[in-house]
């Protein structure tokens, strides 16, 4: 079930931006103008069966309508350094975007992960091996506590290595184009493996 529903203020704002009257919006989704008025004044909610057609009539996605936020493309150049990550706490799905987004999985809106520098409990080692970065993380890999994925942010994209309990917490990435390494602990969140990546990049480019 969604953790946030359509608000009357959102419906009214989007309707006015589309220069629609309550009657015109009502006609598009086959309800009465009185129903639209009730939604906008908080005296009722649109039935879940109407959400998709309501979103279409208002010119937004269903996720935008439910989240109450318009998503605009502020990253038209697809700058990979602005990559954001989302992890579903229900199914463990890993989702990456190249900029601002509203992401939903298993019926809930996912928060964007905020990265921290690797600490003593999440030590990361990055070595140059056969023209690749060999990333190893000193971390338990049990079913209850493990590194879920390691990812390389590249100038032309993002490479994600999904990990599972009882595997080694390690991965290899191409050196060329790699700008940053991140990894995700299922209990403590997203970490940045920045300790020696920039030094290694400088070494390789000489």
What is the fold's blueprint, element by element?
Elements: H1 8-17, H2 22-29, H3 33-40, H4 51-58, H5 62-67, E1 84-87, E2 94-97, E3 103-105, E4 108-110, E5 116-117, E6 123-129, E7 132-138, E8 147-154, E9 157-162, E10 170-174, E11 178-185, E12 189-192, H6 197-205
Parallel strand pairs: 5-12
Antiparallel strand pairs: 1-2, 3-4, 6-7, 7-10, 8-9, 8-11, 11-12
Helix pairs in contact: 2-3
Helix and strand sequence:
HHHHHEEEEEEEEEEEEH
Strand content: 25-35%
Distance between the termini: 54 Å
Give the mean pLDDT: 83
SS-derived structural category: alpha+beta
SS summary, helix count: 6
Task: Describe the main β-sheet briefly.
Answer: 5 strands, mixed
User: Strand sequence of the main sheet, in spatial order?
Assistant: 5-12-11-8-9
Round the Cα radius of gyration to an integer and report it. Answer: 22 Å
Q: How many extended strands?
A: 12
Shape: elongated
């Amino acid at each position: 079930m969604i953790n946030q529903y359509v608000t009357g203020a959102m419906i009214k704002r989007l309707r006015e931006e589309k220069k629609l009257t309550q009657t015109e919006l009502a006609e598009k989704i086959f309800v009465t103008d009185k129903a639209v008025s009730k939604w906008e004044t908080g005296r009722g909610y649109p039935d879940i069966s109407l959400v998709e057609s309501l979103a279409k009539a208002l010119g937004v996605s269903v996720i935008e309508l439910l989240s109450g936020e318009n998503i605009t493309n502020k990253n038209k150049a697809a700058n990979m350094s602005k990559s954001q990550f989302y992890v579903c706490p229900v199914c463990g799905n890993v989702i990456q975007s190249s900029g601002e987004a509203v992401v939903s999985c298993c019926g809930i809106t996912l928060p964007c992960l905020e990265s921290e520098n690797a600490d003593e409990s999440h030590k990361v080692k990055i070595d140059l091996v056969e023209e690749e970065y060999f990333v190893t993380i000193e971390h338990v890999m049990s079913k209850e506590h493990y590194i879920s994925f390691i990812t390389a942010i590249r100038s032309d994209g993002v490479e994600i290595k999904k990990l599972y309990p009882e595997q080694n917490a390690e991965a290899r990435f191409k050196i060329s184009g790699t700008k940053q390494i991140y990894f995700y602990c299922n209990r403590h969140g997203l970490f940045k493996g920045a300790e020696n990546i920039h030094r290694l990049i400088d070494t390789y480019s000489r």
